[in-house]
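Recall the central idea of this unit: under ordinary conditions, the amino acid sequence of a chain determines the structure it adopts. In this exercise we apply that idea directly, starting from the sequence alone.
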Amino acid sequence: MEKPLLHLVFGGEVADPQTNDFVDPDNLDIIGIFPSYEAALNAWRGASQAHVDEAHTKYVIVHMHKMLDPSSAD
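Accordingly, the structure predicted from this sequence is:
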């Protein structure tokens, strides 16, 4: 069985939509942790589309597997 590559999807209000400077880190919208980039991307799309009219709301995908194992090539 292939090792899952964990990805975290979260978002919230940002000061500037071109940055990742979240205004209120205590109230981030945590969508979840996903076992593949594809699953995370689907969750990110859903969350982003649900907030499309809120210009200062941004969702991101964090590659947790890279943080947990920085020596990994993937």
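Residues 37-50 form the longest helix (14 residues).
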